[in-house]
Every structure is written in C-alpha cells, then in structure tokens.
Amino acid sequence: MIGKVDPAALWLGAFVGAQVLLVFLCVIKANAYRERAYLLHAAATLMAVIAVQALLAPHALVPAAVLLLVPAMAGLQLLDLMSHAGGLRQARRWLLGTSAIALPALAVASFFNVWAMAVGLVLWLAIASLVLWPAWRQSRPWVWWVLPGLAALAAASLHVAADLQPFTMEDAIWVSGLLAVWSACTYLATGWRGRIYRETRARVLARNTTDPLTGLATPLVLAERVQAARHLTRRYGHPSVLMVVNIDNLGALGEEFGPEVAESAVLVAANRVREALLRDGDVAARLAHARIGILAEGVGTAQAAATVAGRILVAGLKDPLPEAKSEFLHFRIVMTGVPTTDMTPRQLLQRLNARLDQEVQSSSERRIVTLTQEELLA
Fold first, then answer.
1. Average pLDDT over residues 167-191
2. What H or E segment, with its residue span, contains residue 220?
3. Which domains can be identified in the chain, with CATH numbers?
4. Which of 105, 114, 123, 374 has a CA positioned 20 to 30 A from the CA of residue 285?
5. Which helix (H) or strand (E) holds 242?
6. Which segments cross the bilayer (predicted)?
7. For position 5, what pLDDT does the model report?
8. Nearest CA to 297 among 235, 242, 250, 248?
9. How far is CA 48 from the centre of its chain?
10. Strands 331-337 vs 368-371: parallel, antiparallel or unpaired
C-alpha cells in the first residue's frame, strides 16, 4: 500500500527538479553554442540547489554561507552577459571584485556573524544595479528577464538573512521556489542575449566575407582561397586558375541610361557570373565597380578558358538587361594559373588588373587573354 504523499515534499521536489533540469540544459547549450555564460549559470544554479539542501541542515548558519555564493556566481555570469559593454569598464571591475572576492569572503564570515550575508547582499545588489542600468536604458530585451530573476534571488536571500533560526519545510519551499524563478528567468535572458550576440557576430562575419551590393565574396575571401589553392598546387600538383572579369560597357550604360541602370547592371553581372560557376569549388569576389575576380580550382588555364571563361561570356550575351532591353553585358577576361611562387594574392591581382587595363585601352577584340607564368612574373 502506498503511503500518503506530503504535498510540501512534492512542491520542494518540483522546484529543485526544475533547477536540476536547467543545469542540464545550460551544460548542453554551452557545449552546443560555445557560450561560457551558460556554464556560469549552471554553476550558480547548482549552488542554489545545494543552498536549498542546506536549509534543512542542523547548522543554522550554513544556508547563509552557501546561498551567498549564488549571487557570487550570478555576478560572474552577469559579467559575461555584459562583456560587450566597453563603457562600463569600471563598474564591471567593481562587480568582478564583489563577486569573486568580497562575497566569498563574506560567505566565510557568515559562519560567525549573522550580518555578513545582509552586507554582502546589499553590496552585490548595488553593484549589479549599477551595471544593468545602462542596458535597461537602452531597452535591451534580455534585461527584462534578468531583473525579475535578480529580484527573486534577492528575495530568497533576504528570506534566509532575516531568519537564521532552524528552517522549516515551508522556508525551504519558499526559497527553492524563488530560486527556481531566478534560474528560469536568467536562463531565458542568457538565451536571448546569446541569440542577439550570435546574430551580431553573423552580420559582422557576413560584412567581412560578402559584398553587400552583389552578394559575391569580398577580396579578403578571394585572397584566402588563392593562398589555399597555392598550397594544393605545391603539395599535390592540383592546378587552379585566377581570372579577372571586366564589364566593358558599364561606363557606356551609365552615360546613356543613367547611374541607376549602371548600378543594376553590376548586380545582373554578378548574378550571371555566379550562375556560370557551376562547381562548388569556384569562388567569385567583387574587386571594383566593374570588375569581378574568380578562382576556378581543379582546372588548367586551357580548360578554364574553354569552360568557365566561355560560360561567363555567353552568360553576358544570352539575355538583355532588364533595365535596358536593347543592351547586353560585354565581358572581358584576363586569366592565369595560380603560381607556386611567393607572389601574394594582392600582387597577383594587381598584375592581372594591369594587363586588363591594357586590353581595355587598346580596344582589343580578344575577350579572353591568358597570361603565362613567364608573362606574369616578368
């Protein structure tokens, strides 16, 4: 026969179980997203679980000492959440000193003095409020979850600080419930802030690797790929070809139809070059207003001229421009095999551009010009 279950024990188990579940979720997300804030929150929540267990211990001062370490860990986690706030350097130092030095020292002192916990809690709340105030004024959404969480943590700590007599089951339920609210709110704030940070980091990475007008790669990406292709050529004899594509009639389009049509022609040219690069190993980058750099891996100069370069020329002539129905894109290409010498990608592109300038100025009828290694190094 199953005995009657104590409702108080059920509530306490539910609150403690929720915190243990949040510990596991924090560890999983920390490993998935490589975010230290989740690990710090997991440590703080685990300390809160230990503090709840200490409430029912025979020594009345043990819960105060253990619970004072929860704001200490929460302060270190808050530092990680506010790591982007460069203007709060002095306030962050105060929070670091309070969380890493003052609160652990006061936790030890709370074994001997009942006022140590109250002093540490007031000090920590003052410094944490000083750090969070600028973020609140900037209406950062994740702060809306941090503040109720800190209020619940403060309420739990004050409940323990105000009554150091042997704690009852009711005290344990109240404290564990407040700590569960704090842990859940802080978990949500950490996830929200992490999402904002990851989106910002993705935008910065995209700005450094993607041209905003055409969606092609940036010269930095092209240079890195050229270096990688050179290592493959040296090591395995894996050939690669670097080419520079010029939009010959872009200036004439701007003069006849206006700068808006010329700008749209650049976008159309980028799309057609992208469509012409059928292989995943090829990369195209916008070098200048009318020029696009292309790296074709795994092909020699003769094969690249017949396939990649040929497809690009055809792509410019297959359809008229959407903004100028009577005009087509006329491309001119200068290309060379990626050399195994120590010539930097920048120097390599400069020499290809110089030769392309000569071809444009001379109004040559050749649309594909291949430079030999001797011509390139001359």
1. 90
2. helix 219-236
3. 7-209 (no CATH), 219-377 (3.30.70.270)
4. 374
5. strand 240-247
6. 12-30, 37-56, 62-82, 94-112, 118-135, 142-161, 173-192
7. 64
8. 242
9. 30
10. parallel
